[in-house]
Write the C-alpha cells for this entry.
Amino acid sequence: MPVTDVTTDPEALTLTLTADFAAPVERLWEAFTDPRQLERFWGPPGYPATFTEFDLTAGGRARYHMTSPKGEEFHGVWEFLEIDGPRTFTALDSFADADGTPLAEMPTSRMVFAFDQTSTGSRLVNTTYFDSAEALEKVVAMGAVEGATMAINQLDRVLDGLRAYAAGKGTQTEILDDTHVRITRLIEGPIDLVWRAHEEPELVQQWLLGPDGWRMSVCEIDGSVGGKYRYQWEPLEGTEGETFGFDGETLLTEAPHRAVTTEHMTGTEFPSTLNDLNLYEEDGATLITLLIEYPDKETRDIVLATGMTDGMEASYGRLEGVLAGV
C-alpha cells in the first residue's frame, strides 16, 4: 500500500500522512490537481467524492461532496492559498453545507501537500495544521486517520492506469477492516454494457452463476431506489448442492456508475450485507469495484472462507464472454 505513515502531533497540532508511489512527481501532481482524477481516490471506499468546482489559483477554491452508500452527502470546500506546481500547494480545508458555506461549528484546517522525487518515483507528504488540540482530536475521532489512509491507498490505480494496474490479476479481494472487503475486477468492455449486465435479468442470468454446474433459476430486478431484487440458484444434474438465493433492496443508483443494495440470504435470519458497486471505464475497459460491508468480523470470515473470490472470478470470466456477444 502507498501510505507508509500517518502521525498525529498534539504539540505541533498536526496530522501528517506520508505515501510513496512508483510514478514521477509530475504525474502525482496531475492526479491531485485534475478534479476528475482527484475524485477517483479522494473519498475513502464507500464515500466517493464529486468535485463540482475547482479553481486552482491562489484565492480560488474547490467544492466537493462525498456520497455515502445510503445517499447522504457530506460537503467540503478548499480555499487555495499557495501554489507552486508541481512541488506543493496549500489550502484551507473546511466542512461545509450544500451551498459551500463553511460550517462554523466544525474546524477549519490548513493542508500542505508536498510532492518530492525519490529513487523509485515520488513521495507525498500531506501535513494538516489545526488551530487547537480540540480541533485535532475532533477530526481524528471522526475517523480522519483511517479515512485518509484508505483514500490515498486507492491512488495507485489512478497513477498506473487501469490496464497496467489490473493486468493479469483477475478478481482481487482486499480486507480493508473488520467489516469491509473490497473486490475488484477489470472487465474488457464499455461501462454502459457492464452496467446493463448488472441490471437486466436476461443478461445477469447468463453470467452470475459462480462455479460450473449451477443455473440461476430466478432473477427478478427492480433497480430503482426502494426497488427489490431476488436471485435463486439451483444445481444442475450431477452437481451436489441445495437450492439457495439472495434478496435485497436498492438504496442508491447512479447509472452507469454506482448502485448500492442490501443482500440477504433468502429464508434465513442471517443479517444483510451492504453491497456498494462502482464502475469506472478507461480505454474501453471497465473496472468493477464492489465494496461489501458485513455486520461483523465473524460473518466476514465465514463468507470469505466459502471460496467467494474463485466463484466471482468464474462469473466475471463469463461476463466478458457475454459482453462480447451483446
Q: What stands out?
A: The domain at 3-160 is CATH 3.30.530.20 (Alpha-D-Glucose-1,6-Bisphosphate; Chain A, domain 4). The radius of gyration is 22 Å. Residues 308-324 form the longest helix (17 residues). The chain has a mean pLDDT of 95.
